[in-house]
Specification:
Blueprint (H helix, E strand, L loop, with lengths): L3 E5 L4 H12 L3 E8 L21 H14 L3 E5 L1 H17 L6 H20 L4 E3 L4 E5 L6 E5 L16 H5 L1 E2 L7 H10 L21 H13 L10 E5 L4 E5 L22 E6 L4 E5 L5 E12 L9 E6 L7 E8 L3 E11 L6 E6 L2 E8 L1
Parallel strand pairs: 1-2, 1-4, 2-3, 4-7, 8-11
Antiparallel strand pairs: 5-6, 8-9, 10-11, 12-15, 12-17, 13-14, 13-16, 14-15, 16-17
Length: 369
């Protein structure tokens, strides 16, 4: 069916509005929900808080309700094995290596677009549509597909989408890229969608209440099939002068820029400057010690640009809520770039994504070393 569009439905307002919009336009659509993580798994992590997490069983139910209400075919596909392999295993490995991963980027790159396009092929769909806030255009001179930030920059999700390929962009629709959230909510009300008043999800779907350390420990126990707690980790907290300031229970519990949970009294605020999981050392210091003028980014994927052969100017975002900072990109050996900021940036964190922008154009991105 060359005109069939597979809509990735999360059970939230955004993807539901996308489906309703396309249906209203007379497009031939099929809704598909990906079951990624069993929320009943690891019961020791159960929490009374049920809101704020995506991909729950309630979300699957909500997506099905919308499909029935609007009137289009709907499928649920279990991708838990692929999700664990491509998202959870790298997530744990990165933290254990002293880096801070971005699981939503991994999920988008290897599941929500890569695997989802395979699912679209299986039902004969030529295109997919999602509720992401981003825009796709085509450069008529180069023939290259380009990604641009959403009109509503406060909702822009391009930071998590830099891993998309040209083929994926050529088959993807982002109908919400030209809208703001208020407009999307209003459309949900206009369509009388059952999810019109549903709250947004912000937390990592497999980490209850954001306690990633507890998740890692529980998941590792399950994988080891022992059911026994791992031997307690003990490390030292030192300041930037190398003086010991305290003890900790595992360097993987700390991230660069963290202030809370240090348990160390001081006349000025102290932050995590770096972690070393090999020596189990956590280094702390003042806010000024967090500032960095340069960083190296590897594992690059060029989205709108075809590559980088010479130094180029860009705005660089080093975390989702970070205001892109002016910088010069210098190509170095292999698939790596040195970034030199015009002004030092706070908490440059290994393992996080770095996304390069040229105006509203998403040039590309990679991982901070």
């Amino acid at each position: 069916m060359p005109d069939l569009i597979a809509v990735a439905m999360s059970g939230g307002v955004d993807s539901s509005v996308v489906a309703a919009l396309l249906h209203r336009e007379g497009r031939n659509i099929a809704g598909m929900t990906m079951q990624l993580w069993n929320q009943r798994r690891l019961p020791e992590l159960s929490t009374e808080k049920t809101t704020g997490r995506c991909c729950s069983l309630d979300d699957v139910y909500d997506a099905r309700r919308v499909a029935e209400q609007v009137g289009f075919p709907f499928y649920v596909v279990n991708l838990e094995r692929q999700f664990e392999q491509n998202v959870i295993e790298p997530f744990v490995a990165e933290y254990n290596a002293g880096r801070t991963p971005v699981p939503c980027t991994l999920c988008n790159t290897f599941i929500k677009f890569d695997r989802f396009l395979e699912l679209a092929d299986s039902v004969g769909a030529q295109s997919i549509a999602t509720g992401h806030y981003a825009r796709i255009t085509r450069n008529v001179e180069t023939g290259r597909y380009e990604m641009r930030t959403a009109v509503d920059f406060s909702k822009d999700q391009t930071y998590f989408l830099w891993g998309l390929t040209q083929e994926q962009l050529s088959r993807t629709l982002f109908p919400l890229g030209e809208m703001n959230k208020a407009e999307v909510r209003a459309l949900a009300e206009t369509f009388h969608l059952a999810v019109a008043g549903k709250h947004e999800s912000y937390e990592i779907c497999f980490v209850p209440n954001g306690d990633y350390a507890a998740f890692m420990e529980a998941w590792s126990r399950e994988k080891d099939k022992t059911g026994e707690p791992a031997e307690a980790t003990v490390g030292v907290v030192v300041d930037t002068e190398g003086r010991e300031r305290g003890k900790h229970a595992g360097a993987h519990r700390y991230t660069v820029g963290q202030r809370k949970g240090l348990g160390i009294a001081a006349p000025e605020p102290l932050y995590v400057i770096s972690t070393d999981t090999k020596t189990q050392t956590v280094t702390i210091g003042s806010n000024d010690a967090l500032l960095r003028s340069t960083m190296v980014v590897s594992g690059l994927n060029w989205v709108s640009w075809s590559g980088l052969a010479a130094p180029a100017r860009a705005q660089v975002r080093i975390r989702n809520r970070h205001v892109p900072a002016a910088a010069t990109l210098n190509p170095i050996d292999g698939n790596r770039v040195e970034v030199r900021f015009d002004e030092p940036q706070r908490a440059v964190t290994p393992g996080q994504g770095a996304v390069f922008y040229s105006g509203d154009l998403v040039a590309g991105g990679g991982w901070i070393e």
